[in-house]
Design a protein that fits this description.
Layout (H helix, E strand, L loop, with lengths): L1 H22 L10 E5 L4 H12 L3 E6 L2 H12 L9 E5 L6 H15 L4 E4 L14 H29 L2 E6 L15 H18 L4 E7 L3 E2 L1 H7 L4 H7 L5 E2 H14 L3 E3 L1 H10 L9 H45 L1
Parallel strand pairs: 1-2, 1-4, 2-3, 4-5, 5-6, 6-9, 7-8
Helix pairs in contact: 2-3, 2-9, 4-5, 5-6, 8-11, 10-11
The protein binds NADP nicotinamide-adenine-dinucleotide phosphate.
NADP nicotinamide-adenine-dinucleotide phosphate binds next to α2, β2, α5 and α7.
Protein name: 3-dehydrosphinganine reductase
Pfam families: adh_short
EC number: 1.1.1.102
Length: about 325
């Protein structure tokens, strides 16, 4: 009887594996495709642009600083695989004026054709204790990280729907999967991207458009170096519990997942665990992925609780040390 049940389960799993490719999206062909990368002049965005260019794509880079854009264009062009490839630079703030963003993307599409892959990577961060963060920083981060992803996506979606093809990537963060000390202004902007992505994916899936949400871990970039200058001690100590990734590695994973049309994109074993833990009602792009979530969720929750316990103890230790040194100062 037990043997029969085991054979039945194995047969179901095998069947699911066999039909899995039938429900998975067809991979995007990058050679000749038009890829737009916001935040493409630095860090993860720059490495995503390089990765796509190496695979034969035409690139539009979007950022504000023109000099940085031109410098990056030169850097990317070293990786050309054919002499037809173009790197177009557009200087615009993606968070300010929707019509301006729509116009520049229209111009880019006139030059390089309709957008096949849009990577929303422009973003910024502010860390600090909730009460210490300037009120306007909450508004600015929501504008850049959230609206700065809404505007370019809104500007290209109609053409993608007409063509019944396209890929949109939202670069969130592991801080968009769990809230950590010091990230009260940043985390909500990255959580918001997940909500946008889930709702949008349900709308556009019948049009053969696939949305990816990437959750990079701490990554060695100019933006990360800048953020690290003002991180509270608690945030630093919690960050140090995992290692810092290279932007090239993160970019490779994001590009691979965008090509495959995977909804979740994570890096490393921590990233894998967090994606399973926070999968909730998010879409799956293969039965294998769904099975992994069903099987691993419980055990990962136990591991997650240990992590949460150790983060809480870091925060408590820092508070006690601070209070102790304040008391010593007072008595001196
Ligand atoms: N590095 C990490 O540890 C890490 C971890 C998780 C998630 N992320 C996310 O990954 C993305 C890239 O991060 P990064 O560390 O690579 O950042 P980065 O090195 O600071 O690069 C940010 C890019 O975004 C552009 N940008 C910023 N604000 C913009 C705006 N309003 N309009 C247009 N472009 C704008 C910047 O160019 P200009 O300044 O010239 O406009 C630059 O090209 C961000 O969304 C970040 O939140 C990063």
């Amino acid at each position: 009887m037990l043997l029969l049940a085991a054979a039945f389960i194995v047969a179901i799993v095998l069947l699911l594996y066999m039909v899995s490719p039938l429900i998975s999206p067809k991979p995007l062909k990058l050679p000749g495709a038009h890829v737009v990368v916001t935040g493409g002049s630095s860090g993860i965005g720059k490495c995503i642009a390089i990765e796509c260019y190496k695979q034969g794509a035409f690139i539009t880079l979007i950022a504000r600083d023109e000099n940085k854009l031109l410098q990056t264009k030169k850097e990317i062009e070293k990786y050309s695989v054919n002499d037809k490839q173009v790197v177009l630079c557009i200087s615009v703030d993606v968070s300010k004026d929707y019509e301006q963003v729509e116009n520049v993307l229209k111009q880019a599409q006139e030059k390089l054709g309709p957008v096949d892959l849009l990577v929303n990577c422009a973003g910024t961060s502010v860390t600090g204790k909730f009460e210490d963060i300037e009120v306007n920083s909450f508004e600015r981060l929501m504008a850049v990280n959230y609206l700065g992803s809404v505007y370019p996506s809104r500007a290209v979606i109609s053409t993608m729907k007409e063509r019944r093809m396209g890929r949109i990537v939202f670069v969130s963060s592991q801080a968009g999967q769990l809230g950590l000390f010091g990230y009260t202004a940043y985390s909500p902007t990255k959580f918001a991207l997940r909500g946008l992505a889930e709702a949008l994916q349900m709308e556009v899936k019948p049009y053969n458009i696939y949305v990816t949400v990437a959750y990079p871990p701490d990554t060695d970039t100019p933006g990360f170096a800048e953020e690290s200058k003002t991180k509270p001690l608690e945030t630093k100590l919690i960050s140090e519990t995992s290692s810092v990734c290279q932007a090239e590695q993160v970019a490779r994973v994001i590009v691979k997942d965008a090509i495959q049309g995977n909804f979740n994109s994570s890096v490393g074993s921590d990233g894998y665990m967090l994606s399973i833990l926070t999968s909730g009602m998010s879409p799956v792009t293969s039965i294998t992925e769904g099975l992994q979530q069903v099987v691993c969720m419980g055990i990962f929750r136990i591991v997650g609780l240990f992590y949460l316990g150790s983060f809480d103890s870091i925060v408590r230790r820092c508070m006690m040390q601070r209070e102790k040194s304040e008391n010593t100062d007072k008595t001196e």
